[in-house]
Every structure is written in C-alpha cells, then in structure tokens.
Amino acid sequence: MMNLNQIFTNQRTGNNPHTKASRTDFQRDFDRIIFSSPFRRLQNKTQVFPLPGSVFVHNRLTHSLEVSSVGRSLGSVIGEFIAEHYTSELTEESKSFYLHNLGNVIAAGCLCHDVGNPAFGHSGEDAIASYFERNESSLKPLFSEKEWADLVNFEGNANAIRVLGQQQQGKDAGGIQLTFATLASIAKYPCEAVARDKKILHRKKFGFFQNEKEMFLDIAKAVHLITENEEPYIFKRHPFVWLVEAADDICYNIIDMEDAHRLGIVSTADCKNLFFELVRSETDDVERIERKLGSISNENEQISYLRAKVINALINKSIESYKQNFEAILSGTLDKALLDMYKSENNSLKDIESFSIEKIYNHKAVVEIENAGYNVMYELLDHFIPSIVKPAHQLKSYDAKALKLIPKQFIYQEGTDYQKVLGVIDFVSGMTDNYATDLYRKIKGIDIGMTV
C-alpha cells in the first residue's frame, strides 16, 4: 500500500534546487508547460479531424486545455477527499498539498499528456513503429533487444516523458524541468517496452525509452511507485495517473462527437439523443434540462449545453469510482480504467463510443488524413535514418545534405546508433502537421523553390 505522504515531491528533472516564489512548484509546472515549445506545437497537430478548415474543430492543444480543465476539477475534489478521510495519516505538509496542490498537479499532467504524440494523430505513431518493422533486416542488428523494442513499439506516452525530461544538444539539463509528481501522473504504462502485455492495463503499452530509463527510475523512487518486477522493470501505476486518464477519456469521448456534429458528420438528432440518454441516466432533473433545451433554438448551442451536462456527469461518476476504489488504487490492484468501469454499468457511454467508431473514426475524411499522415511520417524517417546511422567514413554527399536539414539540437553525433535515431525521431515526431507536410513535399521535389 502506497503511503500518501510519500507519493508526491517537488524534486525536478535537472536537479534544480527548490526556490522561493509566490507560485507553488506545482503551479510552476503548469506555467512551464504553457510556455514550452512542445506544448505550443500542439496547436497544429491533428486531434481527429483534418486541420485547418472553415469550421472550428479541436486540435491537440485545445483538447489538452480542456482535459486540463476537467483534470483540475477531479484533482481538487479528490484532494479534499484525501485530506478529510485520511487526515490522521497525513502530515501537515501533505494535508496542504492535497487541499491546495493536487488539482495543480493533475491539471499540469493533463496539459502535457499529449506532447509526445506525433503529427496526424495515431497514424503518426503507427508510421514510426512500422518504419522499423519494415526495415528490420537492415536496422535491427544496430540495437540491443530492449532498444529495438522501443523503436518497433513507438509510443506517444513514452515519448512524452522523453520530450519533457531529456537534455537536447546545447540545451539545459532536465528538459522543461517538471516535478517528478507531475511526470509520474502521466505514466499510464510504467514499464519497459519488452514488458508490454495488451491484456494488462498498466502494461498495454510502455512508459519510457531505454535512454530515459535512469530518469524514470529516479522518478519511481522519489514518488515511491510499487515495483512489480525489476528485469524488465514494471511498476504499478501512480495514484494520480487514474485522474489524468479519466479527464482525457471524458473529453475525447464527448468532444469528438461535438466536433463531428459541427462538421455535419453526425446529425443533430443523433447527437442530442446520445448525449441526452447519458444525462437522463445520471440526473433526477430531466424536466429542467428539457425546458432549457427548448429555450435554445441554435442547434450547436443545444449540443454544447448537453455536452457540458455530459462532462459534468462523467466527472461526478469518475470521482465516485475513484473514491470507491481508492484502496485498490493505493495498493496497485485496480485493473480497470475509471471510465471503463462506468461503461460496464451504463450503456449510454458505450453507445456513444460505438457510434463514434462507426460514424466518426472511420469517416472518409479521418481515414484520408490518417493515410496521408502515415506516408508523410514514414517517408521523412526514411530520408534521415539511413544517413544518421551510417559511419562517418561511409557518408555520401546526399547523406550529408539530408543531415543538414536536421536542427543541431537533434544531432547526437557522439552518441550510439540508438541515441542518433532517437534524435531523428525527436525531430520528426515534434513536427506539426503543416511543417511535416511542407518538408515532405520539398524533399520529394513536389514543391521546389526558395523559402526562408
């Protein structure tokens, strides 16, 4: 069982000393993320629908801001619950943390949960992983078994830990230098890639690359993660992870539906019915909601109103589930996400998810951007990786020219092949949709001309 006094810390990557400031260390995390380049680039990364368009839809940045808003609510309520129900077990410092700062940690974690995701949604992740799968014969001999597992299973969650915490060439140690508490809150899959197991929730994917293994072990030690196995390393989830995950699940389940309605992919009637059924199942005040809907003539506003009601209902259910399962969360035995528990007892959210898979995620426009994104990301990797792993004495002029396109902070000339390849992946996965597409068109000769 995890000790509530030991699962948070203001220790940061980069070993920076604690400083006195008007903001708490956890508020500073939030601010650092907001002003960081990886977060800013999310404004031009696809959430689900192609960007940009004449109709506003969410991108990864607006999605992350909304997830953070929901996460702050979840963290604040759960912080009060812990401070009240476990007061005899808590130090004064811990009581203050749970009452005043847990909401900040969850908000910061939610804000940066997607910074490791490449352009073009999940197809960008798939393109990176499949590049190595499809070039196994030439590339696999260059890496250890664990390094190879990182590459062929490339994962945005693990990449987020790298983006936020690793030292790029010529830059300060510790990346953005967030607290270990915030970094632990986004580690949904706290294990090495070779320990992946799709049947087990906390091992469905993996949480850190080999290059960041020591940093992750420092995080795990500082926040007292429960160790399940040491070779390979597998940890139980940190208690804060469940709240970040719930906030993300709440938002993408519901907001994607609202976006699809604005784009005309989903009819007003279908969207209203699906949202209203969930609200109806969780409220005794159906008549008041129906009256309110009747007073709104704009269809988009009707859907926005219901969306707010749905999100509020799901926040309340997540809080209820977290409280009910808190002992299992602290002992590392809970094996089902909070929203998945809700789906098993209420078909309304399951209906929304099934409808979304059929009508939204398989819509032609979504599939087209996934196909295009896959090809763009794959070809960019294919342009750089063969050159980056060539010994210096074997480099041809075309290799040298390819490498000149990579900014210096991503070139690890003195590193291993694994570190050099990770540098290229940093460059490519950090690109926005537009930048990746423009560079692809230029190196393929589709667009030729001088740009500055």
Automatic annotation (TrEMBL):
<dbReference type="InterPro" id="IPR003607">
    <property type="entry name" value="HD/PDEase_dom"/>
</dbReference>
<feature type="domain" description="HD/PDEase">
    <location>
        <begin position="56"/>
        <end position="262"/>
    </location>
</feature>
<dbReference type="InterPro" id="IPR050135">
    <property type="entry name" value="dGTPase-like"/>
</dbReference>
<dbReference type="InterPro" id="IPR026875">
    <property type="entry name" value="PHydrolase_assoc_dom"/>
</dbReference>
<dbReference type="InterPro" id="IPR023293">
    <property type="entry name" value="dGTP_triP_hydro_central_sf"/>
</dbReference>
<keyword id="KW-0378">Hydrolase</keyword>
<feature type="region of interest" description="Disordered">
    <location>
        <begin position="1"/>
        <end position="23"/>
    </location>
</feature>
<dbReference type="InterPro" id="IPR027432">
    <property type="entry name" value="dGTP_triphosphohydrolase_C"/>
</dbReference>
<feature type="compositionally biased region" description="Polar residues">
    <location>
        <begin position="1"/>
        <end position="19"/>
    </location>
</feature>
<protein>
    <submittedName>
        <fullName>DGTPase</fullName>
        <ecNumber>3.1.5.1</ecNumber>
    </submittedName>
</protein>
<dbReference type="InterPro" id="IPR006261">
    <property type="entry name" value="dGTPase"/>
</dbReference>
<dbReference type="GO" id="GO:0008832">
    <property type="term" value="F:dGTPase activity"/>
</dbReference>
<dbReference type="Pfam" id="PF13286">
    <property type="entry name" value="HD_assoc"/>
</dbReference>
